[in-house]
Amino acid sequence: MNATRIKTNRGIITIGPHGQIDGLWRLCQRELRTAAQVRKLAGGVARDTLLRWRRGDFPEPVLTFAARAGKLELWSRTEVEAWLKARRRRV
């Protein structure tokens, strides 16, 4: 596994190949969002709406972890907010 780089308007977060964040956990907590948090950020949209958006040009998760219920996907709040802002301009 390579390092993951997440671009934000607050800087770049780098997560090493073994998951180390090196003191940036507080920033990661503000930046990374679960699917439920993404839906809330988008105004409380339904799970089906997020799934439909993902078939289009919605940002891909920046991190995916194995979890008890399958996998945990995390999105960049900055990327999601930019996508939502661009979508509002198109509508």
Write the layout of secondary structure elements.
Layout: E1 4-8, E2 11-15, H1 25-31, E3 32-33, H2 35-41, H3 47-54, E4 63-67, E5 70-76, H4 77-90
Antiparallel strand pairs: 1-2, 3-5, 4-5
Describe the structure.
The protein has 91 residues and is an alpha+beta fold. It has one domain. It contains four helices and five strands; from the N terminus they run ββαβααββα. It has helices at 25-31, 35-41, 47-54, 77-90; strands at residues 4-8, 11-15, 32-33, 63-67, 70-76. The strands form two sheets. The chain has a three-stranded antiparallel β-sheet with strand order 3-5-4. The chain is globular, with a radius of gyration of 14 Å.
The first-to-last residue Cα distance is 39 Å
Helix content: 25-40%
Q: Could you give the count of β-strands?
A: 5
Strand order of the largest sheet: 3-5-4
Give a short synopsis of this structure:
With 91 residues, this protein is α+β, with helices and mostly antiparallel strands.
Features:
single chain, about 90 residues, alpha+beta, three-stranded antiparallel beta sheet, two-stranded antiparallel ribbon, 4 helices, globular
